[in-house]
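Note to self: keep these together.
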Amino acid sequence: MTLVSIITPSYNQAKYLEQTIQSVLSQSYQNIEYIVIDGGSNDGSIEIIKKYQDKFAYWISEKDHGQAEAINKGFAKATGDIVAWLNSDDYYLANTIENAVKVFEENPDVVLIYGNMLAVDENGKTFNTLNYKQLSLEDLICFQIIGQPAVLFRNSALQKTRGLNLDFHFLLDHLFWIELAQHGKILHVNQTWSAARYHAEAKNRAKAAEFGKEAFRILSLVEQDKNLSPIFVKVKNRAIASAHRVDARYLLDGDLPTKALLSWFKALMFHPPTAFSRMNIFVSSVLNILGLGKIREWILKLKANW
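Structure:
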């Protein structure tokens, strides 16, 4: 029976941590090696971890240099054929791991799979469903984003990478997908596997301006990589426009609509189809600038209820 290693990096997320842990431990698939890496929390997280410690293959609580280092520590302990990480404010839906293992068994040439994902608020209420599509390495270089909590990958491919880049803190997962995708096929599975929690302390809101900076750093690394640079050259304008689009999206999440609108127009200059594919960023930015942001919130709530 295939062993699956799940890593949860955590730091001061006691409010959400127990739901994350329970979502792993309650999976229908039982052959799971669960690893929890805590960064020295002081908010009650350790008490929650100790409550379940007999269910873990390994856990530790010590100061680290951030999420990437914590996850890499987990990678070093992971012995499963399949690996994933689940942040301590996200959670899996029922039967996720069982379904993922089945997909890997049916597709031996695939190194990474990803499902769809719910977007939930701090109370766990769904306000959006993120349905993805099949992507290529070119698409990843052009910042077609996939939901990290709905991603699993083979340990054999992980061993061919350097793990997560410690110099990245916001798009570290996306850079890692690009590395993995060089070692085999990636596959989208049209099932909803996880929920990502959006709350005031989440990085996408608290430090929105940093995401765009890392997008352009990723492009620089790709351009300098001898294996990736030929692909980059083919999609250069689209890739640059996509980095601006990513910047715009997170600036909007961070309540910086004027800067978001400016980034959207930069995307338009480099590759109009990329900008026009996200007209919602343009519309939402304009509404927020005009003080009509409540309309956007109403539309999102209406979509979630529908």
